[in-house]
Amino acid sequence: MNIEMRKTAQGTEYWDTEAKKIRFVPAGKKPGFEVTKEPKSMLSEKKEMQEDNKTEVDLDSMNADQLKDFAKQNDIEVPGNMKKEETIRAHILETLTAADE
After folding, report:
1. Which helix (H) or strand (E) holds 64?
2. Domain identity same for 37 and 48
3. 4-57 pLDDT, tens per residue?
4. pTM summary value
5. Which residues touch 20 (CB under 8 Å, ≥6 apart)?
6. Which structural domain range is residue 86 located in?
7. How far is 4 from 66, CA to CA, in rounded Å?
8. How far apart are CA 42 and CA 96, in angstroms?
9. Which of 6, 26, 46, 96 has its CA 20 to 30 A from that of 58?
10. Does 71 lie in the same domain as 47?
11. Are the C-beta atoms of 61 and 42 separated by less than 8 Å?
């Protein structure tokens, strides 16, 4: 399953959930693989709900940059000294849990 992650001036990045890597497609080119528009089937045991659009997100499959992007999209401030995926993930989970209370 390939999911669009972000678009830049150079092209589009897709997350390949099977190979666990990012696939890059240059701007103006079409991907040579199938792209999943709504990845509802990529759920794991640890699921988090985004408050704004109620979609499920698998934080465990994200790398540090993806976690930072997720935090930015959800108005969660990640301190600059947090570099490790585990630390960022824990901070996001703590912030989301505190917001639910």
Report:
1. helix 64-73
2. no
3. 888 889 999 998 888 889 999 999 999 999 888 765 555 443 345 444 444 567
4. 0.45
5. 61
6. 43-101
7. 12
8. 20
9. 26
10. yes
11. yes
Q: Which pair of structure tokens corresponds to residue 93?
A: 């989970």
74: closest CA among 89, 59, 92? 92
What SS3 state is found at 56?
A: strand
- Count the residues in the chain: 101
Specify whether the CB–CB gap between 3 and 20 falls below 8 A. Answer: no
One domain for residues 52 and 91 = yes
Over residues 65-74, mean pLDDT: 91
Of 71, 64, 65, 70, give the one whose Cα is nearest residue 87: 64
- Which DSSP state fits 74? T
- Tell whether 70 and 88 lie within a shared domain: yes
Check residue 58 and give its pLDDT.
84
Q: How far apart are CA 82 and CA 94, in angstroms?
A: 14
Total structural domains within the chain: 2
